[in-house]
Amino acid sequence: MGSKCLTATVSQGAWPALVLNADFRPLSYYPLSVWSWQDAIKAVFLDRVNIVEYYERQVSSANFQMRLPSVVSLKTFIRPSRQPAFTRFNVFLRDRFTCQYCDAREDLTFDHVIPRSRGGQTTWENVVAACSPCNLRKGGMMPVDAHMLPRQRPFQPTVFDLHQNGRHFPPNYLHDSWVDYLYWDTELDP
Ligand SMILES: [Zn+2]
Predict the structure, then answer these.
(1) According to the model, what pLDDT value does residue 8 have?
(2) C-alpha of residue 148 to centroid of ligand 1, in Å
(3) I need a surface site. Which of 74, 92, 99, 144 has the fewest CB within 10 A?
């Protein structure tokens, strides 16, 4: 569902480790906190993390042999950032992968509500998901002139906002061992 739109952050077979904070929640959801297996192992040796879950995959060298960690948790709690990063994925996620002018779900691009040529900024408050045809139709016009107003006024979402939408559009790579730590609160929902 919508997965072809997602920006791939992790490719399968790369053995990424999900990084949890010391409270066992992901360090960050948007983007999801993952490290390469090399960084994860380095953090293990630096004693910065505990290994929570493993992959089957092993690595070995002359001195050691170990299974690659699939989930690690920080030993020291880091205060999580309250604001999601301004990324293409997160803008799409806020807008539920839906054109904000016609509700299309295909061929999505980004539209500056106030065109850049009219001084519009590339910010949460001025960028929306739009399908190519709508984007072309609107061109460099102001919303009122084009008679095209976004379905919802673009806004800076909270992690909670994205979390609500995120359940419908999970990242395109989720190892089985991650799921318990990502959706631990799902059952609490009505
Ligand atoms: Zn459209």
Answers:
(1) 34
(2) 10
(3) 144
CA 47 to each of CA 24, 41, 80: distance values in angstroms, whole numbers, following the listed order: 17, 10, 21
Domains and CATH numbers, the chain: 13-80+166-188 (no CATH), 88-146 (1.10.30.50)
Lowest mean per-residue pLDDT among 11-25, 33-47, 106-120, 147-161: 11-25
Token pair of 122, please?
């590339």
CA of 131 to the centre of ligand 1 (A): 4
Task: Give residue 183's pLDDT band: very low, low, confident or very high (50, 70, 90).
Answer: low
Using alpha carbons, select from 45, 48, 54, 46 the residue that is nearest to residue 18: 54
